[in-house]
Design a protein that fits this description.
Number of helices: 12
Low-confidence stretches: none
Largest sheet: 4 strands, mixed
Mean pLDDT: 97
Bound molecules: flavin-adenine dinucleotide
Radius of gyration: 21 Å
Structural class: alpha+beta
Distance between the termini: 32 Å
Strand order of the largest sheet: 1-4-5-8
Strand content: 15-25%
Length: 380
């Protein structure tokens, strides 16, 4: 669904100002304290950020994919940990429910997800199932009206705050067709959450293990039919990858702006370093790649809004944009010189933050595999 253009412009403007005036001043604090202040989370709720992608009938903003990526491009202009606060509610934590949930499941959960009253997480990865995500070993065995679920999920974003998990578990034989998806409330007996992992970057966004010890989950909490869980998870990830690609573009644009500003100020050999063509080459390469990624993201979002299959396109957007922002962050450090390595300038923090984008929701190698497989399937 598409918003009235004036309403959407007002939202975009509010997000831009929120990023600039409220979030950017707190970046160093969030990195240091590994926590986003509660008053900021409250402001995110008031802005409607938890419900961006959730249909209006369930209390969300109901953005189209094109609108959503344009909001994410703005959110990319600050540390990505802020977006993680509501990122799972907007993306991987809620979209399985939006795509495959029954009317009863949707009306039970979506309004609270959209308002930010509760946090949701997506639990696919396991200690033994990362890139090979169809190899999940978490088991769900039907006993009357319940499934008993046991297993361990690893590196689950926002697990320490989540009230609801979308858990992929094995109900059938080996492989993707044996996997089903379940809505698992965090307060069920047998659910326990590990301590937040210490990470390279994106401090303030937490990942933890989710341990499921013979958890009795009502059969009514299954998302879709038995054996459809992997398909649901992959559709959720198609969408999530496009959103990450948009975030990468936003961060690249921020890094380029910071690098250009610094290059204009910093003087060596009697002139601003921006006057040196070797520095200009780094700016030109970064700008060109960021523009290409932006165009790709917007094109794929338009395809999604036309209900086209975007499995290959979203993988390509995520692959290109995440690799691109890695190169842009590296050049930004270079343009800042020694200051690029010093915490006070903030560039080293973004350099650490962006490394994750080439790893989660499918590594770059996994994206390459998807792109090649889909391209060959379509005959080139
Ligand atoms: C901060 C963070 C947040 C995360 N959030 C979530 C979350 O919310 N929910 C969730 O379910 N998961 C989450 N993950 C997990 C993430 O999606 C996985 O870490 C990722 O998919 C890679 O899996 P792995 O770590 O097991 O790496 P592995 O699969 O072990 O890969 C190791 C290396 O081998 C390569 N490789 C593997 N298979 C192949 C192949 N066939 N061909 C070529 N190369 C290959 C990989 O590309 C990589 O370079 C998160 C991870 C992190 C770090």
């Amino acid at each position: 669904m598409t918003l009235d253009p004036a309403v959407f412009d007002a939202l975009l403007d509010a997000v831009r100002r929120f990023v600039c005036e409220r979030l950017r001043p707190l970046e160093a604090q969030v990195d240091r304290e590994d926590a986003v202040p509660e008053h900021i989370v409250e402001e995110m709720r008031a802005l409607g950020l938890f419900g961006l992608s959730i249909p209006e009938e369930y209390g969300g903003v109901g953005l189209s994919m094109d609108e959503e990526v344009r909001v994410v491009l703005e959110l990319g202009r600050t540390t990505p940990a802020f977006r993680s606060v509501f990122g799972t509610n907007v993306g991987i934590g809620s979209q399985g429910l939006v795509m495959a949930g029954t009317a009863a499941q949707k009306s039970e959960w979506l309004p609270r997800i959209a308002s930010g009253e509760i946090i949701t997480s997506f639990a696919l990865t396991e200690p033994g199932a990362g890139s090979d995500s169809a190899a999940v070993q978490t088991k769900a065995v039907r006993h009357g009206g319940n499934y008993r679920i046991s297993g361990t999920k690893r590196y689950i974003t926002n697990a320490d705050k989540a009230a609801l998990f979308t858990v992929m578990a094995r109900t059938g034989g080996e492989g993707a067709r044996g996997v089903s998806a379940f809505l698992v409330p965090a307060d069920l007996a047998g659910v326990s959450i590990g301590a937040p992992e210490k990470k390279m970057g994106q401090q303030g966004a937490h990942v933890c293990d989710v341990n499921l010890d013979d958890v009795a989950v009502p059969a009514a909490n299954r998302l879709g039919e038995e054996g459809e869980g992997f398909k649901v998870a992959m559709r959720v990830l198609d969408r999530g990858r496009l959103s990450i690609a948009a975030l990468c573009v936003g961060i690249a644009e921020r890094l380029i702006a910071d690098a250009v500003g610094y290059a204009a100020e910093r003087k060596q050999f009697g002139k601003a370093i921006a006057e040196f063509q070797l520095v200009q080459a780094m700016i030109a390469d970064s700008k060109t790649e960021a523009m290409a990624a932006r165009a790709l993201v917007l094109e794929v979002a338009a395809q999604k809004d036309r209900s086209e299959n975007i499995t290959m396109e979203a993988a390509a957007a995520k692959y290109f944009a995440s690799e691109m922002v890695g190169r842009v962050a590296d050049r930004a450090v270079q343009i800042f010189g020694g200051a690029g390595y010093i915490a006070d300038y903030g560039i080293e923090r973004l350099y650490r933050d962006v490394r994750l984008f080439r790893l989660y929701e499918g590594t770059s190698q996994v994206q390459q595999i998807i792109i090649a497989r889909e391209t060959m399937k379509r005959g080139g």
